[in-house]
Write a structure and sequence with these properties.
It is a single chain. By secondary structure, this protein is an alpha+beta fold. The chain has four helices and nine strands, in the order βββββαββββααα. The strands form two sheets. Strands 1, 2, 3, 4 and 5 form a five-stranded mixed β-sheet that branches. A hairpin with a 4-residue loop joins β3 and β4.
């Protein structure tokens, strides 16, 4: 079974109040724990086994044998790595560059006289190719003026080309519901030669006339 070594620890300023037993060890340090010392007891006094050791509290106090980098060194290394990736940049030119003059990671903007927009060229492997253009087809989109004239759709309603004027609206507002009369006066009827009214007097006069075929005493006249 392995032996266990017990080591006491505390402040150096309190060590004078402590008597270590023979062979007993103690680690003592100052208030801010920047210095540490090892003591051993002989049964009567405490013996300093090593001089006070100053404990480093800063990385700069250590030997950088593992080559750790400082913050500024890391920033410089990262910046250099980003610069080496070769981000693309745009460049306006009058004509398409040749493969001999074209540069890597450069997008060339060449004005297209037919579309009045720029074509985009770039060096790809051993040739200069057209990648895209800046033409934007907006034929299917509405203009601001058109949007300002639009009418919002309302559920249950639809638009009509039969324009409804203010005069028609006012005329309709002045109308009332028509009630059909239960009877009509004869005076409202227009008569003609084949359609005429007969009065009661006329009917009585006509009824008093003898029919040409009426029988009187069994004879005719």
């Amino acid at each position: 079974m392995a032996n266990t070594i017990l080591i006491k620890r505390g402040l150096i300023k309190n060590l004078s109040n402590l008597t270590l037993a023979e062979g007993e060890l103690a680690l003592a340090y100052n208030d801010d724990k920047t210095k540490i010392a090892l003591y051993a007891g002989n049964g009567g006094s405490n013996i300093l086994l090593n001089p006070d050791v100053t404990v480093p509290t800063k990385v700069s106090e250590l030997t950088n044998d593992s080559k750790f980098q400082t913050e500024s060194e890391v920033a410089t290394t990262v910046a250099a790595a980003i610069a080496a990736t070769g981000h693309a940049s745009f460049k306006k030119v009058d004509s398409i560059p040749s493969i001999e003059t074209a540069e890597d990671n450069v997008l060339y903007l060449v004005m297209n006289s037919k579309t009045n927009h720029y074509d985009i060229y770039a060096k790809v492997d051993s040739e200069v190719v057209l990648l895209d253009d800046t033409t934007v087809d907006l034929s299917g989109y509405a203009t601001v003026e058109e949007l300002n004239k639009k009418v919002d759709k309302v559920d249950g309603k639809q638009l009509s080309t039969e324009d409804y004027t203010t005069a028609e609206k006012e005329k309709l507002a002045g109308l009332s519901n028509y009630t059909h009369p239960t009877s009509h006066p004869a005076s409202m009827i227009t008569q003609d030669s084949t359609h005429r009214f007969v009065s009661d007097a006329e009917k009585t006069a006509w009824n008093s006339k003898l029919d040409s075929t009426s029988t009187i005493d069994g004879g005719t006249f």
